[in-house]
Amino acid sequence: MKKYLTILIVALVLLLSLLIGVTLPAQAAAKPGKCTSLHYVRTGDTLRYLSTIYKMDAWFIVQANNNQAQKPNYPIYLGSRLCIPNDPEGKPKKLAGYILDQVPADFYPRLLGRTITITAYGFGRSSTWIVKVDDKKYKPLFKPRVKGRYEQKYQVPVTSKLVCLKNITTDFQVCRKVIK
Q1: Residue ranges of the alpha helices (H) in the chain?
Q2: With contact defined as beta carbons under 8 Å apart, do 102 and 78 qualify?
Q3: Tens-place pLDDT, residues 137-176
């Protein structure tokens, strides 16, 4: 009998709380500056284009993605996911036109025999990347030192299928299938 009485009291308290408007939120509202959506970077995307389609200053997109879009030229990477913030706060920083209009950085791993050549386009010159081929790390580290196109070669097994570059500063990682 006590058990039924307890259940009845709990049910009445819940019903009463609903009637007077005291409810527990099912999900907290998104906080300002947090991601409301994700954008997958495709060929042709630029910071200027993203700021236009999401109707916000490009600087807020860069800030929300500081793990991948870093100084000096805030590159974005083909195939990566970008956080699109809701209700960004603060004053935006003016970005130069060449930064707003740069195409996404990308790389292509080509295998010829036991040598894999990684050709990168648009990577920041001050960035350093760990090279992983099928989850095995290789040295030397990948350090683009010229603007534009950069190549580096590694000796790998002939059966290699996937190459990943992981930024040593931010842990951002981007992967590509090996082209044979």
Answers
A1: 2-19, 47-53, 58-64, 97-100
A2: no
A3: 988 888 887 767 889 999 999 899 999 998 887 788 889 9
Q: Which domains does the chain have, with CATH numbers?
A: 35-100 (3.10.350.10), 106-177 (2.60.40)
Tokens of 58: 């490009």
> What is the model's pTM?
0.64
Whether residue 128 has pLDDT greater than 60: yes
> In a 10 Å sphere around its CB, with 0-12 CB exposed, 13-18 middle and 19+ buried, how is residue 16 labelled?
exposed
Could you give the CA distance from residue 180 to residue 111 in angstroms, rounded to a whole number? Answer: 5
Q: How far apart are CA 12 and CA 107, in angstroms?
A: 63
Selected residue with higher pLDDT from 70 and 110: 110
| Rounded-to-integer distance, Cα 9 and Cα 180, Å | 70
